[in-house]
Amino acid sequence: VFTYSREEGTAAAALPSRISEKEKERRREIIMSEQADISHAINASLIGSIQEVLIEEKSGREGYAFVGRCRRQAPEIDGVTYIKDASAKIGRIVKCKITAADHYDLFGEIISNSISQS
After folding, report:
1. What's the pLDDT score for residue 115?
2. Is the pLDDT assigned to residue 97 strictly greater than 70?
3. Is pLDDT at 40 greater than 80 in this prediction?
4. CB atoms within 10 A of CB 74
5. How far is residue 72's CA from residue 87's CA, in Å, rounded to a whole number?
6. Are the CB atoms for 107 and 64 separated by under 8 Å?
7. Enclosing domain of residue 21
């Protein structure tokens, strides 16, 4: 989320009043806090579910061997899924049981390494 910035050619650019940078930042922080709560609730609802996860790379996070993404996690926009099981292979899709969640990321364990790679 970005703070508001005036853009020439838009209806808002013609408005006479302006808000301070401090107020813009305050509003952004409110939105970010609300979004974090929403995101956490959505992620928490996935705990216990089975997700197909594309294994992307080794994890630098302690206790987790790999990082991947399920269908709902877009690169550079959404969080990732951390995988405990070291038996995964980069580039493969695995079935993973989601065991925990935070505001942006999921955490899981592999329940099957054999997903069709068509």
Report:
1. 66
2. yes
3. yes
4. 9
5. 23
6. yes
7. 11-43
